[in-house]
Specification:
This protein is an alpha+beta fold and 237 residues long. The protein has 2 domains: 2-16 and 125-232, FAD/NAD(P)-binding domain (3-Layer(bba) Sandwich), CATH 3.50.50.60; 21-121, D-Amino Acid Oxidase, Chain A, domain 2, CATH 3.30.9. Helix content is 32%, strand content 19%. The chain has helices at 91-98, 103-109, 151-168, 173-203, 208-218, and strands at 2-3, 21-29, 32-33, 47-51, 54-61, 66-74, 118-122, 130-131, 134-136. The strands form 2 sheets. Strands 2, 3, 4, 5, 6 and 7 form a 6-stranded antiparallel sheet that branches. The chain has a 3-stranded mixed sheet with strand order 1-9-8, covered by helices on one side. A hairpin with a 2-residue loop joins strand 4 and strand 5 (54-61). Helix 3 packs antiparallel against helix 4. The chain is globular and about 60 Å long. The two termini are 22 Å apart. The structure holds flavin-adenine dinucleotide. Flavin-adenine dinucleotide binds at residues 4-7, 10, 27, 70, 118, 138-140, 146, 149-153, 155.
Amino acid sequence: MVGADGLWSRARGLLSTDRPITDTYVAYRGALPMGEITVPVEPDDEIIWIGPNKHLVQYPIRRGELYNQVAVFRSTRYTPELEPTDDWGGPTELDAAFAGSCEQVRTSITMFNRDRRWVMYDREPLADWTRGRVTLLGDAAHPMVQYLAQGACQALEDAECLARHLAKHAGDIDEAFAGYQAERIPRTALVQHVARGWGQVWHDDGEVVPALRDRVFGRRATDDYTDPDWLYQPVTS
Ligand SMILES: Cc1cc2nc3c(=O)[nH]c(=O)nc-3n(C[C@H](O)[C@H](O)[C@H](O)COP(=O)(O)OP(=O)(O)OC[C@H]3O[C@@H](n4cnc5c(N)ncnc54)[C@H](O)[C@@H]3O)c2cc1C
């Protein structure tokens, strides 16, 4: 059995008693027809507005037909007691979080879908995600906060790797699952941890980290995408 049942995986419950952890951030999404966008946009643009306890990402998708937007902020109402409810991270908090932003960001925030929010969750990496004939894949195995935009990417890599090991160890599920998790756990655990750190650097509301961050980012050419190169090296078999 391959448990690919997402963040709240029941299959994971067969091998771990852990539960998702929130960093108390919430995301709203607002994909728009490109015709509604009034600012000039290039097909390869990825714009990230960063501020204390918040960020806004904007980029074209679907061959430039849609403009995808994701706004993320730390809830000021969050408490562990409220966590299972919808009474925190609501649209009022969304507006308040971005109220002090520049006009372009504030205008963008008015164009978001307010019907649904996504709470940011991850879990600590597992040292072992296989028991007998049960293994995990995707968010069930390694949910991560979405700041590196890697959750679905890592799930796809899992699928390729699992298929490769099943072919290599034809008929021996134990060997295939062992090879699969030996290859995938170190990489996905790294991505889980770096995603957290990436968010902390973006959202920091102190003085030192934003100063260093802005200095590093300010020296980078706007078309320089080498920072995440380590994510896109060929996966070894
Ligand atoms: C706001 C936001 C933005 C994101 N942006 C990106 C991005 O840009 N790039 C990226 O790579 N990732 C991104 N992600 C992460 C990505 O959405 C997930 O990592 C990905 O969907 C995980 O895929 P999955 O198949 O493992 O789990 P899921 O997509 O959650 O699928 C699990 C499936 O299992 C089903 N299921 C659950 N329980 C059971 C059960 N008991 N029985 C049967 N079926 C069950 C569910 O209905 C669901 O269909 C983002 C996430 C969020 C919240």
